[in-house]
Amino acid sequence: MQLPYVQLLIIEDDALDVEIVREWLAEIPSFLVTLEHCETLAAGLERLKDSHAPIHLALLDLNLPDAQGLSGLLKLHQAFPKLPIIIFSGNTDERLALEAVQKGAQDYLIKGQFDGKLLQHSVRYAIERQKLYLELEDKTRQLQLLSQQLETNNQKLEQLATIDSLTQINNRRQLDQLYQAEWKRLCREQRPLSLLMCDVDYFKAYNDAYGHPAGDLCLQQVAQVLLKSAKRPADCVARYGGEEFMVILPNTDVAGAVHVAGLIQSGLHQIHLHHAHSSASDRVTLSIGVASQVPMSGVDPAVLIAAADQALYAAKNQGRDCIQAYPDNPSHPSS
User: Fold this and answer.
1) Cβ-contact 311, 325 below 8 angstroms
2) Which residues are in coiled coils (predicted)?
3) pLDDT given at position 335
4) In terms of Cα–Cα distance, which of 183, 194, 151, 188 is closest to 288?
5) Is the C or the N end of the chain the one with fewer CB within 10 Å?
6) Considering the domain boundaries, does residue 213 fall inside one?
7) Within 10 Å of residue 138's Cβ, how many Cβ atoms?
């Protein structure tokens, strides 16, 4: 590896050692080095702050007037973690050398036991190792960023799979999953489960008269009314299909479900969406079917949905803009 130019800083209080290093580096013409010298750690730290003339590598003595042992290395590495550091010491303790490398030094050279070629080799590979380390660090950051982006995209995909794109409430797929989960849970707990089946009255006439963009806005506003009315954490509001919505009300008997249905109708009346082509009212209204039962083992969960649908059909037959509750336990309908 050819290094075209290296700005090296030696932090050493012994002028003779500095001159020896300078002479060794000068003996190798292909190795272009500018050597700067600071006698104290404080002076070295101050020099390294100058970003206009960056230092590529520091050669550090462990016996300085203002830093003894590894304290100088720790301070230097903490202040400039990306700077390659070679220890230049008279201490021959192998444990100290190992600890120095573990704490951030790229190499540990013992005074009097190396020459210019070994110094050049150490400088070259200290810079190369640090370069590889920084590249690895950068790749790691990029991978972390990609991982975060992947997680965000997965969350968006999951949302797309469970949320109705128009109304931003649960879609049919999510409704089915949540309904099955609530049925099983309340079957174990023997607590009531209620459903509201809601249908926007004369929605086709609304779409034909005001256009599909207005129809989309209408459905969005209806969805918001449903969300505000069925607002307990366990309640589920979903678009069932077209202009139909379903509300799952766990731990709710038929009386409680009828109460929530009334809140929905009141909320819809308050926003007063004009509908001049409805035979039920001069505004957008809902027909709501209510069904409730305590889930039982061996009973098909679809029976409660069918009961809510029948109740909705009865509401439409009653002139719409009204609430009808299924009169019996859906699992034991009267003959």
Assistant:
1) yes
2) 129-163
3) 41
4) 194
5) C
6) yes
7) 10
Sheet holding 193-200, edge to edge: 236-241, 244-250, 193-200, 286-293, 323-325
Do 130 and 235 share a domain, yes or no?
A: no
Is 186 part of a structural domain of the chain? yes
Domain boundary, last residue among 138, 164, 195: 138
For residue 221, the Cα-to-chain-centroid distance in whole angstroms is: 30
CATH number, domain of 71, equals 3.40.50.2300
Q: For the CA atoms of 159, 163, 167, 168, what is the dihedral angle to 10 degrees?
A: -40
268 and 187 in one domain?
A: yes
What pLDDT sits at residue 183? Answer: 97
Full residue range of the structural domain in which residue 313 is found: 172-325
Is residue 242 within 8 Å of 219, Cβ to Cβ? no
The two beta strands, 67-68 and 63-64, are antiparallel
Do 98 and 111 contact (CB within 8 A), yes or no? no
Block residue for tokens 């520091």: 58
Domains held by the chain: number: 2
Residue 50 shares a structural domain with residue 179: no
pTM for this structure? 0.60
Residue 155 lies in a domain: no
pLDDT at residue number 4: 58
- Amino acid found at 194: S
Per-residue b/e over 102-123, b at no fewer than 16 CB within 10 Å? eebbbbbbebeeeebeebbebb
216 residue type, one letter: D
109 and 178, same domain (yes or no): no
Residue 286 lies in a domain: yes
- Give CA–CA dist 329/211, Å, rounded: 41
Task: Say how far apart CA 123 and CA 173 lie, in whole Å.
Answer: 63
**CB neighbour list of residue 278: distance below 8 Å, 6 or more residues apart:** 201, 202, 205, 206, 284, 285
